[in-house]
Design goal:
By secondary structure, the protein is an alpha/beta fold. The chain contains 15 helices and twelve strands. Bound molecules: pyridoxal-5'-phosphate. Keywords: Aminotransferase, Pyridoxal phosphate, Transferase.
Length: 400
């Protein structure tokens, strides 16, 4: 069993003022200097440990960043107001006009929309590729390519990226490998396989209580300093900075992430096996039938399982909608987007989070109409949950 990323969080020792067991919350947007010269030096980036202004950084944001860097095994990190804040700032920092991006074709809908509709304004263009086929990725590389972008476990189809192979390609062609690890915190540690930049939407599993947005970029001192640079950093200049109060609350939730991930994974595996046994088309990386199962297995920190996300195909859009409405009515979970909550959440990805992707492309990548995406909750009694879902499926003639 590998517990390393969770141990790295557990082993941090950060006290508050007056001996508090939690670090004090920094409740200031600006900071005093004892001398005018130190202020100037801080502007010039020559001082370490001095705070200037909270859009640059704050003590609370640094505490959370430190814990997330420890989890991901990177030199450092910086937190953002949302996952999209983190993603857009990384992409705009790394790319200039004329640059080219290779992205997985199955990614978070917001990221897809940003690359498809927004960055072309700056003449930054993206090829969307089946990232599980390394030959296709290599063939798409041009002299203008700057980076490869993917998710460890992709949204919403749960394709598994072969991080080692992609990192090797990136190295050969002098590209950056940027990885969104939102679906598999603790379970996969992308930097150990050679990812240059690791991003999370903290909104999902890491915070885990569906009460706030948040994001993080984990990477080298050099890259994070570039992002935070007062004169040229995307984090600093685009302004999607996390608030200190939120950093403190997310930090508190982070400390139980390992327990939650173990439970999410256990529950999801239980349901996936049951659904598959009933002949439903079930996608879950923990199933031997999943095309990425073997890669996941070789990349995972085994203690945390295969994660809490699974999809089933119930045959049609109408059946998917009817099932989701009935499951909500029976209080099995909520018909809602997002993930990582204590309750199970379900949505039809085609109509919701992937609605930015044109229908013809959705069909092409296997995003069929009857798909329901589940974020499996922390249910104490998953057998009871299963029986309730089974009854809903029976009632709607989804199961024979
Ligand atoms: C939700 C999500 C994002 C975007 O994060 P926000 O916090 O909503 O901005 C990015 N990537 C993935 C995989 C996500 O699930």
């Amino acid at each position: 069993m590998s517990f390393k990323p969770a141990n790295n969080i557990q082993d941090l020792q950060l006290f508050g003022e007056d001996g508090g067991v939690n670090p004090s919350i920094s409740d200031s947007s600006t900071y005093t200097f004892l001398s005018a010269k130190t202020m100037q030096d801080t502007f010039d980036g020559k001082t370490d440990g001095c705070y200037l202004y909270s859009r640059h950084t704050s003590p609370s944001n640094l505490n959370l960043s430190r814990a997330l860097a420890a989890m991901e095994g990177t030199e450092t990190a910086t937190v953002y107001a949302s996952g999209m804040g983190a993603i857009t700032s990384v992409l705009l920092q790394l790319c200039e006009a004329e640059d080219h991006i290779i992205s997985s074709r199955t990614i978070y809908g917001g990221t897809y929309a940003f690359l498809k509709n927004f960055t072309p304004k700056f003449n930054i263009n993206t090829s969307f590729i089946d990232i599980t086929n390394t030959d296709l990725v290599e063939a798409a590389i041009t002299s203008n390519t700057k980076l490869i972008y993917c998710e460890c476990v992709s949204n919403p189809l749960l394709e598994i990226a072969d991080l080692k192979a992609l990192a090797k390609l990136a190295k050969t062609y002098n590209l950056k490998l940027v990885v969104d690890n939102t679906f598999s915190p603790l379970s996969i540690t992308p930097a150990t396989f050679g990812a240059d930049v690791v991003i999370h939407s903290l909104t999902k599993f890491i915070n885990g209580s569906s009460d706030t947005l948040g994001g993080v970029v984990c990477g080298t001192f050099d890259f994070i300093n570039q992002l935070k640079d007062v004169n040229s950093g995307a984090a600093m200049l685009l302004g999607s900075t996390m608030d200190s109060m939120r950093a403190a609350s997310i930090f508190k939730n982070l400390k139980t992430l390992h327990l939650r991930m173990i439970q999410h994974s256990k529950n999801a595996l239980y349901l996936a096996e049951k659904f598959e046994a009933h002949g439903l088309k079930t996608i879950y990386p923990g199933l031997a039938s999943h095309p990425g199962h073997h890669i996941y297995k070789t990349q995972m920190n085994t203690a945390f399982g295969y994660g809490g996300m699974l999809t089933i195909d119930v045959g049609s859009f109408e059946k998917a909608n009817a099932l989701m409405e009935l499951m909500q009515h029976k209080n099995i979970g909520y018909l809602a987007v997002s993930l990582g909550f204590y309750k199970t959440l379900f949505s039809a990805p085609g109509s919701s989070t992937s609605s930015e992707i044109p229908i013809s492309e959705q069909e092409d990548m296997g995003l069929t109409n009857g798909i329901i995406r589940f974020s499996i909750g922390l249910d104490a009694d998953i057998e009871r949950t299963y029986k309730m879902i089974y009854n809903c499926m029976k009632e709607l003639h989804i199961l024979k």
